[in-house]
């Protein structure tokens, strides 16, 4: 983590002119090198998957090289600090899982012998259309990478959500 004093610092950090990529659901902007793709800079998987998870329409685009994440601009257009909850989400080493909600079409149960049953498990209580990934992830970034892939590869998944785990169980918001 680093302190920045403004856009000149952002430009130095990404090695060139900056392009702003907004992630409204998190209240942050990701700054990347504006011509990074033309310069064939290396793929930034963390920044890309974070963006893709919250902005699925952006999945045709790539973010490359170093990125700077800042809070949403204030009334004067100046960047703010990353919201505290987002900072914890992105930096604290908390185990995460993935909850999948199947669409409501009849017969969407996961057969215990199917390939799908190897990666998702029904939650033990509550809505039968909710499934929990059997995989556990050491970081939020690892979990959201898998969530994006799962969502793209599984058309019946109506919603895919990364959730923190407490004692190995998902902590679902009411």
- Give the SSE string: HEEHEHEEEHEE
Quick one: how many beta strands?
A: 8
Low-confidence stretches: none
Count of discrete alpha- or pi-helical segments spanning 4 or more residues: 4
Rounded mean pLDDT is 85
Please give the domain count: 2
Spatial gap, N to C terminus: 32 Å
Described by strand count, sense and barrel closure, the largest sheet is: 5 strands, antiparallel
Strand order of the largest sheet: 5-6-4-7-8
**What does the radius of gyration come to?**
18 Å
* Shape assignment: globular
What proportion of the residues is helical, as a percent range?
A: 10-25%
Strand content: 15-25%
Structural class: alpha+beta
What does this molecule look like?
- This is DUF3846 domain-containing protein.
- The protein has helices at residues 7-14, 45-54, 84-91, 140-153, and strands spanning 18-23, 28-33, 68-71, 96-102, 120-122, 130-133, 157-166, 169-170.
- With 174 residues, the chain is α+β, with helices and mostly antiparallel strands.
- The protein folds into two domains: 7-90, no CATH class; 93-170, Alpha-Beta Plaits.
- The strands form two sheets. It has a five-stranded antiparallel β-sheet.
- Strand 1 (18-23) and strand 2 form a beta hairpin.
């Amino acid at each position: 983590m680093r302190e920045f004093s403004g856009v000149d610092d952002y430009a130095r950090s990404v090695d060139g002119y900056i392009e702003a990529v907004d992630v409204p659901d998190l209240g942050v902007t990701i700054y990347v090198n504006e011509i990074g793709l033309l310069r064939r800079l290396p793929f930034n998987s963390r920044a890309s998957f974070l963006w893709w998870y919250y902005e699925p329409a952006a999945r045709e685009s790539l973010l490359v090289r170093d990125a700077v994440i800042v809070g949403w601009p204030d009334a004067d257009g100046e960047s703010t600090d990353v919201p505290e909850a987002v900072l914890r989400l992105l930096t604290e080493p908390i185990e995460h899982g993935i909850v999948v909600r199947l669409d409501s079409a009849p017969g969407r149960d996961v057969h215990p012998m199917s390939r799908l049953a190897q990666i998702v498990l029904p939650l033990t209580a509550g809505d039968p259309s909710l499934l929990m990934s059997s995989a556990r992830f050491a970081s939020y970034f690892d979990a959201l990478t898998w969530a994006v892939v799962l969502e793209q590869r599984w058309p019946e998944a109506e919603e895919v959500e990364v959730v923190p785990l407490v004692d190995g169980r998902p902590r679902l918001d009411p």
